[in-house]
Design a protein that fits this description.
The protein is of the alpha/beta class. It folds into 2 domains: 193 residues, Spore Coat Polysaccharide Biosynthesis Protein SpsA, Chain A (Alpha-Beta Complex), CATH 3.90.550; 78 residues. Helices cover 41% and strands 16% of the residues.
């Protein structure tokens, strides 16, 4: 579980994990990516009476959720790895469902449903995991599980992507290309906390669009990057005209497209300024399983 300033919600997620009873030996690893709030104190408090090994590792030296997860995998003990986020809430039986799904697959994604109060496992499904029609893993790392051997064989998460988003899509593409078995785990349910404030949504759209462009360039065999500067500018102009012509009901979605195209331009600049260089954090640590922070 990666976290950065997650004090507002991490106790709910740790509480949900604390209530799991999968019937197998398991542990929880929290990878703190540089929190300056009460996140670390809250995790330390849970460590006092957590029913299984609860590890807190400092991953602040390598910013980004992908790198935080990479270090979390390195300090873990298990041969099966499940990923969740600090601001969501795993459903009852989530750990057991991940374990069972990986008995017949190498990489699986669960169902993310809208977080409600009280929790409702039958709420509207936001993502379902598995393979999409283009044979790309449509699995988000707020609700995913992978065999350790598969994860290490493909090199873990791409460390050079911009800080927010798309590292799961990129990892999934490499796992599919490796010939590993990708599956759907419907019993792995996570209650997903939506971002609703408009400025925060637009910020995420911009950041994830930067990463999206880099992913397109890393995998040109699967994605159409629209990579030339002229092509990117045409798409941006088209999105801008769409915003100018949009009626009130469609203005927000049109703004989203403008911000996404701006993010693609920023991603283009990142690509050609060296942003495509792979991170080496996972590769450097693959042999160091005997040294694990507590």
């Amino acid at each position: 579980m990666p976290v950065l300033n997650g004090a507002d919600h991490i106790a709910e997620q740790l509480g949900a994990l604390q209530g799991q009873d999968p019937g197998v030996l398991w542990e929880v690893v929290v990878s703190d990516n540089g929190s300056t709030d009460d996140t670390v104190r809250i995790v330390r408090q849970f460590q006092k009476d957590f029913p299984v090994r609860l590890v807190l590792v400092d991953s602040s030296a390598a910013p980004g959720a992908g790198q935080a997860r990479n270090l979390g995998v390195l300090v873990s003990c298990g041969d099966l790895i499940a990923f969740c986020d600090a601001d969501d809430i795993v459903g009852a039986g989530w750990v057991r469902a991940a374990y069972e799904a990986l008995q017949s697959a190498d990489f699986v994604g669960g169902v993310s449903v809208e977080l409600r109060d009280p929790l409702d496992p039958d709420a509207a499904a936001l993502t379902r995991g598995g393979l999409n029609v283009n044979w790309t893993a449509d699995i988000l790392t707020n609700n995913a599980a992978v065999r350790r051997s598969t994860f290490l064989a493909v090199g873990g998460f791409e460390g050079a992507l911009p800080p927010y988003g798309m590292e799961d899509l990129e990892l999934g593409r490499r796992i599919v290309r490796s010939g590993s078995v990708v599956g759907h785990a419907p019993a792995m349910v996570v209650h997903f906390r939506r971002t609703t404030e408009f400025k925060q949504v637009m910020r995420k759209v911009f950041q994830s669009a930067q990463a999206e462009y880099v992913v397109f360039r890393l995998h040109p065999d699967r994605f159409d990057a629209g990579s030339s500067p002229a092509g990117l500018l045409r798409l941006l102009v088209g999105a801008w005209w769409g915003l100018l012509l949009a009626d009130r009901d469609h203005r927000r979605s049109a703004m989203r497209q403008v911000v996404r195209r701006l993010g693609h331009l920023a991603g283009y600049l990142r690509w050609y300024s060296g942003g495509r260089t792979r991170g080496s954090m996972l590769l450097e640590g693959c042999g160091s399983r005997n040294s694990r922070p507590g």
